[in-house]
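User: Some background: our group keeps a shared notebook of sequences we're curious about, and every so often someone picks one and asks for a predicted structure to add to the entry. Today it's my turn. The entry only has the sequence so far, pasted here. Could you supply the structure so I can complete it?
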Amino acid sequence: MLSRWWPFSGLGHTGWVARSKLGLGGGADRTGRDRRGNTTHMGLQAKARRSARLAAMCGMFLAALANASTRAAEDALVRIEASVDQRVVTVGDPISYTLALTWKPGIAIFPPSREGSLGEFEVLAFTASEPVDRGDHFLQEFSYTLAIYAVGEHVIPKLEVSYSDPSGDVRTAVSPEMSITVESVIADEEPSLRPIKAPMAIGPRLSRVLLVVIPAIGVVAAVLSYLLWLRRPRVEAPSEADGEPQLSPEEQAYRELGEIARLDLLGQGRLKEHYTLVSEVLRRYAGRRFRIHTLERTTTEVLTALAPLLDDRQLFRAIGAFLRDCDAVKFAKYVPPHAEQQKLIRRAEEIVDACAPPPQPQTATQAASAPMHPDPPSSAPLGRISS
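Assistant: Of course. Here's the predicted structure to add to the notebook entry:
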């Protein structure tokens, strides 16, 4: 009783009245009223709190109801169903993932397109069927072939599909997530590895043997290599006594270009073969003239090797342009104008004449035995370099 009337317990009835007037709730029950039936200040606060909670609950309920109504209306307009052919796969297995999209008439669908990946899954293939009219709705399926290369639990993420409702507003429908379990291709049991072998101990006797045998093997290999080098076949340069004297790089190039001109490949419609043969003649000439490797190399590699050997930059650019023009016909199926086709051999002769070293003084015997030289190009040479 003292705890109930404290701190005015010593005042009797006066203390109880004072506590009621001060709103301290003296003698108030759970309804917030005192013994005389009057509502205390604390009772009013409790009622206000209960009213606020009730209003908040009503608001949440109405919002949830409105959201559910809106979603139900959207679901009625567009619906997406997702399915996979298998939920448990091994690493790298193809997974067939299908999206079935249904929508009501009057809805404009913006279908999904293939992407490089779908979350953690790589898209191997993508196909879309034609929309099917089912009367009250349309149906279209989008099929993905997926693959994943990591073991564990993985989720095919939600896929958003945009659409335009009858009022013209653009909305989005979302597909459900799909969980996939990826297992290892190895058996369930843990593969056991053999223990690491201890290093082999080499005894003192074996060490001495190795110190003698290894150098001996090296000496024998060196001797055999030298003997094989001595017995290699030697290629001797052809001499004039063996037949026709060896032609200079320029003479050889002029002869080969003349033979190509007599084949009349352009008249037979064999354009690519004509450009290939002329290009090879110039490549062989550059290889002999400047002593570089030109065959089985790209044009860029040939020009890189030729650049430090040519001081005449105009001549260097002419050679580069000639080889690139031939590459365009050989590899890019380019068909140049007829006038350029007819000038190809003349262009090659001009380059050969420009690259030729200055003539050396000849004796009377050498002049009499020199092979016939084709007429020089009618146009002015591009330039000369020092031999």
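Suggested note for the entry: The two ends are 129 Å apart (CA to CA). Residues 247-359 form one domain.
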